[in-house]
Design goal:
Length: about 425
C-alpha cells in the first residue's frame, strides 16, 4: 500500500485496498500483459492509485488514468464560450476507442459530486452531454458490446457523502458513505473474492430460470403502474459476471444485484411511475410518470426536473424507447440500507428498473455475432443515451407471459415469487 496517498482518516484503508483488489481481480479479471485505461475524478485519487498498484501486481501492461476534476468542469460552464458546448475532445475518445480495439481493459472510478451541475444552465448541460455522447460513441460501443472486459467502482467523495448524509458532520458523512460502498461492494467480508463467486452463482441461477422460461413479455402492476414490457426477439437475461469477446469474464458493475435483458423497442404499452428520484447530470428528477404506446413514450411528467426530463426524451428517437429492463428484489442489501445514493451504480441495484435509450447487444442470444441491423430487427433500441430509473418497490407484482399468453408469477410484493 502507498504511504503517500492522501486517504481521508474517515475511510478504512484496509477496506479501500480490498476494493481496489476486487476491482482488478473480480471486476476486470485483468489478464497478464493487458493494458488498462482508467478514468477517475481527482477526488478519487487514493483509490485510483491503489487500483494501479493491484493492476501492475496482476501483470498489467500499461495502466493509463484520465482524471477529471469537478472545479475544472464548473469553470467550463461558468466561463466557457457558448460554441464550446457543442464540442467534445474527439481525439481523446478516439484514442480510447483505439486502445479498446487493441485489447485494453476499461475501468471507471465514480466519485464526483452528483449535483455538481445542478445550478448550471440545463441547455448547456444537455448540449455538452450530447456532444460528449457523440464523440464517445465509438469507444462506448466497444464497452457495451463487451469487446473487452470492463468495470465501474465507486469512491466516497466528500461532496457526494454530504448529499447522501446531509445531517452529519463532513467526516462522519464520508465514513458512512465509505462503509455503505464497502458493504454494497462486498469488500467488508473475510474473503471478498470468494464472496463474489458465490454471489455470481446466485445471480446465474436467476438468469438461467428466466432464459428457460423465455417470456414474451413482463407485466408490472403496482401503485401508478400498469405496464406491459414486450421482450426483444432472441433476448437473453444477464446478471453478475459476463464473458467478454476477448475471452475474459468480468463483473462490469461493482456492486451489482440486478438481472437484466432487452425490451422490444416497439412493444411496450401502459403507464409507469418512478419509485425513487433519478439523479441525472446534477438534476434531481422526481415522481416521473410516463405512458407508452407502441414502445414510445407519448406522455411524460415529473414533479421535479420535468424540463430536464423532456430534454432527455428529445435527445433522439431512441431516447423515448426502452433499452433495458432489470429485476432486483426489494430485499437486496442496497435496498435494505434505505439510502438514496444519487448514483445509478448504487440506486439501480436497490430496485427493479428500466432504462431509456441504448440496449446492450450482449443481452441477445449470440449477441456478439449480430449486426446492428439484426439487433434493430429483433427489437433492440438505439440511442445516444442510456438512463436507468427505478420502478420497483415492495408493492410491485410482476408476471411473465409466454407466447400463448399464460402467466407465471415472477415477483410478488417486490420479491422473487
Ligand atoms: Zn440496470
Ligand atoms: Zn442500465
Amino acid at each position: 500500500m502507498s504511504t503517500n496517498s492522501p486517504i481521508s482518516p474517515a475511510i478504512d484503508p484496509v477496506k479501500l485496498d480490498k476494493l481496489a483488489e476486487v476491482a482488478i481481480r473480480v471486476g476486470l479479471q485483468l489478464a497478464p500483459g493487458q493494458d488498462l485505461v482508467m478514468t477517475s475524478s481527482m477526488a478519487a485519487l487514493p483509490l485510483a492509485r491503489l487500483i494501479t498498484e493491484h493492476a501492475y501486481k496482476a501483470g498489467a501492461g500499461l495502466v493509463t488514468c484520465l482524471f477529471s476534476d469537478d472545479e475544472m468542469t464548473l469553470a467550463r460552464f461558468r466561463y466557457g464560450s457558448d460554441d464550446s458546448f457543442d464540442r467534445a475532445a474527439d481525439w481523446l475518445y478516439e484514442g480510447q476507442a483505439k486502445a479498446f480495439a487493441n485489447g485494453a481493459a476499461r475501468l471507471a472510478v465514480r466519485g464526483e459530486n452528483p449535483m455538481l451541475l445542478a445550478g448550471e444552465d440545463p441547455a448547456k448541460v444537455s448540449r455538452a452531454n450530447k456532444a460528449n455522447s457523440l464523440a464517445y460513441r465509438p469507444a462506448l460501443e466497444k464497452i457495451t458490446g463487451f469487446d473487452i472486459n470492463w468495470t465501474i467502482v465507486a469512491y466516497p467523495d466528500a461532496a457526494w457523502a454530504k448529499l447522501v448524509f446531509p445531517n452529519d458532520p463532513d467526516e462522519l458523512a464520508v465514513k458512512k458513505l465509505a462503509d455503505a460502498i464497502f458493504a454494497a461492494s462486498r469488500v467488508d467480508v473475510a474473503d471478498p473474492v470468494a464472496n463474489w463467486q458465490a454471489h455470481n452463482a446466485a445471480l446465474k441461477s436467476r438468469t438461467t430460470w428466466l432464459n428457460e422460461k423465455n417470456f414474451q413479455s413482463l407485466h408490472f402492476t403496482g401503485p401508478g403502474t400498469d405496464l406491459r414490457i414486450g421482450l426483444a426477439d432472441g433476448h437473453e437475461w444477464k446478471g453478475g459476471a459476463s464473458l467478454a469477446k476477448n475471452g475474459v469474464t468480468c463483473n462490469p458493475n461493482i456492486p451489482t444485484e440486478e438481472v437484466f435483458t432487452t425490451p422490444h423497442a416497439h412493444r411496450v404499452e401502459g403507464r409507469v411511475s418512478s419509485t425513487k428520484p433519478l439523479s441525472y447530470q446534477g438534476t434531481l428528477i422526481d415522481n416521473i410518470e410516463v405512458r407508452f404506446e407502441g414502445g414510445r413514450i407519448v406522455e411524460a411528467n415529473a414533479s421535479k426536473g420535468e424540463a430536464v426530463l423532456q430534454k432527455v426524451l428529445d435527445t433522439d428517437e431512441g431516447a423515448r424507447r426502452l433499452g433495458e429492463v432489470a429485476l432486483v428484489p426489494h430485499s437486496s442489501p442496497i435496498s435494505k440500507s434505505g439510502l438514496l445514493f444519487y448514483n445509478t451504480l448504487f440506486d439501480e441495484n436497490a430496485a427493479c428498473h428500466i432504462a431509456l435509450g441504448q440496449c446492450y447487444s450482449d443481452c441477445f442470444v449470440n449477441g456478439a455475432s449480430l449486426t446492428p441491423e439484426q439487433i434493430a430487427a429483433q427489437g433492440g433500441n438505439k440511442s445516444l443515451i442510456h438512463i436507468d430509473w427505478m420502478i420497483g418497490s415492495g408493492q410491485i407484482d410482476i408476471d411473465g407471459l409466454d407466447a400463448s399468453g399464460a402467466r407465471t408469477p415472477v415477483m410478488r410484493k417486490g420479491e422473487w415469487a
